[in-house]
Design a protein that fits this description.
seven-stranded mixed sheet; two-stranded antiparallel ribbon; 28% strand
């Protein structure tokens, strides 16, 4: 059995277990949502850089080496004294290590480099339906579904918030879950961390 198939079977089993355990306590909550919440602690980091991503590099004590950088279409950035190197696929921590080693070998003694993500333009989330500003938004590391709705300006007056749908690809399989937004806002359900590529749709209320 392939790794992907094993992962999908694990996902299906987790949904079934959560559905069974939550039948009484969470009658109105989609068990697939509960499974996603339980799974998110095991998710790998999503902070790899890609073309168009903007980040701030600060070399302490060296203002001339500090500034904003954007990953080029070829996946690289050009840094003083280091030259052009590939940032695509690296995390901010990886970039800090690369530049610390490079500057330490060629320019500075014990350089202190800090990388801060400003905008993930290579990764997007999609919010449609009954929100005030629907559209496509740059992904932010560890952004929650509630934070995402703030980006979209909040809900319209016609929104059926508790029927919000989240579409996500899990191990190559597209799944759709109902998000209990009202319960999340009221603190009765846990918030969900979004992943790049997530699609959120808020339907119109029937009333």
């Amino acid at each position: 059995m392939t790794h992907s198939r094993v992962q999908f079977c694990w996902w299906a089993a987790l949904v079934a277990i959560v559905a069974f355990l939550s039948a009484c306590a969470h009658e109105r909550v989609d068990p697939a949502y509960l499974a996603l919440v339980e799974q998110q602690a095991e998710l790998p980091p999503t902070g790899e850089l890609g073309p168009g991503d903007r980040f701030l590099l600060r070399v302490y004590g060296e203002e001339g080496l500090s500034g904003e950088f954007t990953v080029g279409a070829d996946g690289t950035i050009n840094f003083p004294h280091i030259g052009r190197f590939r940032a695509e696929g690296l995390t901010c921590t990886d970039v800090e290590v690369e530049l610390t080693l490079g500057l330490g070998q060629h320019v500075l003694k014990d350089p202190n480099v800090q990388c801060t993500i400003m905008e993930y333009n290579s990764k997007r989330i999609f919010i449609f339906g009954e929100v005030r500003e629907p559209g496509t938004f740059p992904y932010k590391n560890n952004i929650s579904i509630i934070e995402a709705f703030a980006l979209a300006g909040g809900f319209s007056e016609r929104a059926s918030t508790n029927n919000t749908k989240l579409t996500r690809v899990v191990d190559g399989v597209e799944i759709q879950v109902r998000v209990p937004l009202q319960e999340i806002v009221e603190g009765r359900q846990r918030n969900l961390r979004l992943l790049p590529g997530d699609i959120i749709f808020v339907p119109e209320s029937a009333y």
